[in-house]
Amino acid sequence: MKKEPRIDTRKEAIKNDIRKALLASKSYVEFEKQMKQMNYEVIKGRGIAFIDSKKVYVKGSEVGYSLSIIEKILATTDLQKMRLIQRQIAEEKAVKKSKPIKQKEPPKNIAKEFRQDFSKAVEILLRTEETFNQTPYELINKKRKKKHQRSHHL
For 16, which DSSP code? Predict the structure, then answer.
């Protein structure tokens, strides 16, 4: 489930409402009025953003309608608006189709890759462990023997 893209119904609704407002408007002022009638707050700065009735903030570019695209659409005739919006919808569908939902196919040379990865893993597991600040067992025994011998000589 994690690999499947999440469908955000709120963003889809905003997209559709923006399209409706664009088709019904001849200027930016009319567009903003239309959006307000659909219960959106419109924030225009260097870009454009919308806040829906549940106070969720969405940038126009996140839903495919940046300020420049909105202004471009508003500057056209009704027929051109329809074509631009249809092109926008077609591009969105093409992007959705190009993103594979299923898991990608394993590479054809998977056995070779597996052997390489496996041999690397075995090599790492068989490496001698480096221990720092520890005296090897053999040296401890030598030291004990010397200590033991000294105590017997006294």
Answer: H
